[in-house]
Design a protein that fits this description.
alpha+beta; ten-stranded mixed β-sheet; two-stranded antiparallel ribbon; single chain; 14 strands; 7 helices
């Protein structure tokens, strides 16, 4: 029953607010004939008034059109609403024209048996993504309510994410904040770049270790643009070690004894040295503060151990050193 103090919104908007679903989902329910307004089939643009009776029949979620595949997953936490995954490198998060199968979503459809549907379809709700060759933590919703709440948390920048990253050369300071907009590269549309008309993007880089020709850095995201950490480090002149897109062959730019060391690190880094190490958010149902940590996986840990070896350490740890992009 429509209450007397409720605004006279369109039916799809009114329904979305009361069912806690998206407006498009509410519109689909109306178009499918699953909503009655005073016993009659309405249009989504109809506006209920106080005293109107609205009836809704919500169908069970439809099976996902995507294939469930038995792909190994590291599930570090799971409850009725969400799960946290420690994603391995090389795994694409969501099916796309170039990757229709073998993705994290395909793996989740096989591993998780209590999905209650996202948008009326039995599928996991991807809240945020990691690049194919980036490893580490991400949160996935099991139902519409959790997906909407976590997505709102992400938009409000209350989901906190931190990464471990190795960057070529030496940062200008131990803490380097970057506030530089990111958008599509103006000439290479496959890449992102710092561009004047891009979307706001903010990252804080904190140096953890000085290596001979690279720094181990903690990157904290305030926003979540595509390739944000990689693009911001490139903007600083210190691309991610092992980044074949934004920093290929960068290790060859060093001279002197650093050149051989950089070549050694490049050989020992099989992919971009970027790992989602920390994830913090508020649980959408309980309100509990959730925090998860993930150490470097074996491939990057081995490269880091080699880089910090005594024979590889720079002779003067207070020296800023030299390298590509150094001021």
């Amino acid at each position: 029953m429509v209450a007397g103090d409720e605004a006279r919104d369109r039916l799809d908007s009114w329904l979305a607010a009361r069912l806690d679903v998206s407006r498009s989902r509410a519109a689909q329910l109306i178009e499918d004939g699953r909503v009655l307004l005073n016993g009659a089939v309405p249009k989504k643009r109809d506006r209920p008034v106080p005293g109107d009776r609205v009836q809704v029949r919500i169908p069970p979620p439809a099976p996902s059109p995507l294939a469930a595949q038995n792909i190994p997953l590291a599930i570090v936490y799971q409850d009725d609403d969400l799960l946290v995954i420690d994603k391995p490198p090389g795994l694409v998060v969501h099916p796309a024209p170039g990757n229709p199968q073998g993705t994290l979503v395909n793996a989740l459809l096989h591993a998780v048996h209590d999905l209650s549907g996202i948008g009326g379809v039995l599928r996991p709700g991807i809240v945020h993504r990691l690049d194919k060759d980036t490893s580490g933590l991400l949160v996935v919703a099991k139902n519409d309510d959790a997906h909407r709440a976590l997505s709102d948390e992400l938009k409000a920048r209350r989901i906190r994410r931190a990464y471990l990253v190795a960057a070529w050369g030496r940062l200008a300071a131990d803490v380097v904040p970057v506030d530089a907009p990111i958008g599509r590269h103006h000439t290479d549309r496959r890449k992102m770049a710092v561009v004047e008309d891009g979307r706001p993007a903010r990252t804080k880089f904190i140096r953890l270790e000085r290596w001979r020709a690279a720094d181990l850095v903690r990157a904290e995201l305030d926003t979540g643009r595509t390739h944000q950490i990689r693009v911001h480090l490139l903007h600083l002149g210190h691309p991610v070690v092992g980044d074949r897109t934004y920093g290929p062959e960068r290790h060859k730019g060093f001279g002197g004894p650093e050149r051989g060391w950089a070549a050694g690190l490049a050989r020992r880094t099989p992919r971009q040295f970027l790992h989602a190490t920390e994830l913090r958010f508020t649980h959408p149902r309980t309100g509990e503060a959730m925090r998860f940590d993930s150490p470097l996986p074996p491939d990057l840990a081995a490269a880091a151990e080699w880089a910090r070896g005594a024979e590889n350490a720079p002779p003067d740890l207070s020296s800023r050193g030299s390298g590509p992009g150094e001021p």
